[in-house]
Amino acid sequence: MRRILCVLLALAMLTGLGGCARQPQRQSVTWFDLFDTVTILLGYTDTEAAFSEQAAAVYQDLEHYHRLFDIYNTYEGMNNLKTINDNAGVAPVEVEQPVIDLILLAKRLYEQTDGQVNIAMGSVLELWHDAREAAEADPSAAYVPNEQALREAAAHTDISRVIVDEQAGTVFLEDPEMRLDVGSVGKGYAVELAARAAEERGLTSALLSVGGNLRAIGQKPGDQKWTGAIQDPWTQEPNAVSPYTVELSDGIALVTSGDYQRYFTVDGVRYHHIIDPDTLQPAAWANAVSVLYPDSGVADALSTALFNMPPEDGLALIESIDGAEAMWMLPSREVIFSSGFAESLRENTE
After folding, report:
1. What are the structural domains of the chain?
2. Distance, C-alpha 266 to centroid of its chain
3. How far apart are CA 273 and CA 162, in angstroms?
4. Which end of the chain is more exposed for a tag (fewer CB within 10 A), N or C?
5. Can you tell me the distance from the alpha carbon of 341 to that of 22, in angstroms, rounded to the nearest whole number?
6. Rounded CA gap, 58 and 61, in Å?
7. Backbone region of residue 258 per phi and psi (left: phi > 0; alpha: psi in -120 to 50; beta: other values)
8. Which alpha helices (DSSP H) does 17-142 contain, by range?
9. Could you report how far apart the first and last alpha carbons of the chain are, in Å?
10. Which of these, 275, 4, 271, 257, lies nearest to 153 by C-alpha position?
């Protein structure tokens, strides 16, 4: 499962909108049953009914992708990622186009990030997931996955053995022990698809937040940009805001990966959920990495990749990608920005 950052939505009140014309009203809705996180849709529409209609459609889309990308549960009448995993080494599975597109995107990102994003790491991530679940059920029984077991699982993570037949619409895992886990990209990809569908339905001013994934749709009335305040990773206070607020232009996504949620503790050491594919241990280069990019799925994957890299390597990668910007918050409490990140940055002085 992928890393989840609690992002606080900083919304400025409308100003300077004089006159008697009826202005769009701010609306919001919160859901707690999608992608194992909190989902918030904020928007401006002419009527409450119009917002409710848009919100219902967004929820329906996200719920569908939640089920498609689920690796733990099956659903009647649907072949999802769990179906693919259950048929590893057995037979190709016919799936819906979004699953095909997601896996093809993940394969491209694997190459682009030199393997730092690998959806074929499910066998390794499953060991860490089980350890975290055991710790949550009984902290006194918390344990760290056995190193030998991790190495054995890592032998079944060759993404080239994920076979996609676009013409037939099927996915086949050649390795019977391989398992897919799209936590590094799936949530962001779902957010992007849902946001694009909402735009096509006529939603022109909204901010969709699913855990650590934000996607701007248009702007707020008065040509004001949407903003997101990134959580402070260095404090013990829950949901504490860092000094930085990020402005989001139309169509831009902000995705943050952090080490302060989805973790467990063994002998005083905290083990978070973002696993370095090189060490098979929780990555230790940063406490939080935020990425801006005009595609939430790509931003999601890049935030994971950068989290798994030395900052200097991550900076070189992000500077090579047109339209991508990033911010690192390091254990030394140093903050690093890519060359264009400051253009979207607004210091939080509140």
Report:
1. 8-12+24-69+185-347 (3.10.520.10), 83-173 (1.10.3980.10)
2. 26
3. 23
4. C
5. 36
6. 5
7. beta
8. 48-68, 81-86, 97-112, 122-137
9. 33
10. 275
Strand partners, 247: 227
| pTM greater than 0.85 | yes
Residue carrying the six token digits 């996607």? 215
CA distance 64 to 106: 19
Helix (H) or strand (E) holding 257: strand 253-258
φ, ψ for residue 209, nearest 5 deg? -125, 120
Q: What share of the chain is helix, strand, coil (3-state, %, to 5)?
A: 30, 25, 40
Question: Residue 243 CA to chain centroid, in angstroms?
Answer: 22
Q: From CA 271, how far away is CA 93, in angstroms rounded?
A: 34
Model confidence band, residue 237 (pLDDT cutoffs 50, 70, 90): confident
Three-class SS state of 316: helix
Mean pLDDT of the region 230-234? 89
Pairing of strands 226-231, 241-248: antiparallel
Confidence of residue 348 (pLDDT cuts 50, 70, 90): low
CA distance 342 to 332: 21
